[in-house]
Amino acid sequence: MSLVFFPCCVSSSFTSQCESAARVVVDKLGVEIQNGSEFNCCGYPYKGIDFNAFILMSGRNLALAEKKGADLVTNCACCYGTLKLAKSILKQKLSLLEYVNNALKKEGLAYTGKSTVKHLLDILFEDPGIPVLKTRLNGTLHGLRAAAHYGCKVLRPDDVVDFDDPLSPSKFDKLIEATGAEPVQWLRKLDCCGAPLIGINDATAMNLAKNKLESAMQAKADILCTACPCCYLQFKRARGTLAIETGSEEYISVLAFVQLLGLALGVDRNVLGLPAGLLS
Prior knowledge:
Blueprint: E1 2-6, H1 9-13, H2 16-28, E2 34-35, H3 51-68, E3 70-74, H4 77-92, H5 94-104, E4 117-119, H6 120-137, E5 145-149, H7 152-155, H8 158-161, H9 171-178, E6 182-183, H10 202-218, E7 223-226, H11 229-246, E8 253-256, H12 257-264, H13 269-272
Parallel strand pairs: 1-2, 1-3, 3-4, 5-6, 5-7, 7-8
Helix pairs in contact: 2-12, 3-4, 3-5, 4-5, 6-9, 10-11
């Protein structure tokens, strides 16, 4: 199966640097991924509001990938977990499968389950793979200490996403290590960033993000590195809030992994959305 890129709504609207960095890094590494423009939202925001809307939105995306004869690749943990969950549900609930396909008939689409869903981390980990990345990058970012934030949806529920060991994940750390940077071990590594609680309990959402930033700093990390645009946006907001509350800008920097990898590959900082002076 070929691969088609599934754009994240948050990335497209609020963190465009995550999407542009992902596309240029993929191209730079020679990974062939088609651009996808017909897709709608993965359905994640609707899951707790209108379940049928969520399953139809995910099902349509999966059906579009099938029509292209491709597997979906996303740079977002939330999109990844949502689409994987939809695949699992549609495999088990034939009534929902019928509902989705009846709705998709109007567009000449059908979902059969042929296409898989992959996170960009998975693609990089498998092909080109760690040995090739290490050779290409040649320890470019040696001396940099990075705290890897995986994101809840890429790890749990593990019987659905099947990405890595949910209690002791290592893939993302190994990818960071391939750049020459040192992945640190930190206390709140597997905690949620708080983004799912925005609009429900903003105070708790912000505290979760702040606690993670402080935990990464306590581990002497130079940066907090995330593989999800939603988490990236949440940490950037929390960092800004901390700066206002304390009157200090001396807080750990937040980078998306594709930005870090792009930096190691020598991609122009403006393309990566990196502020002047950061990691220079």
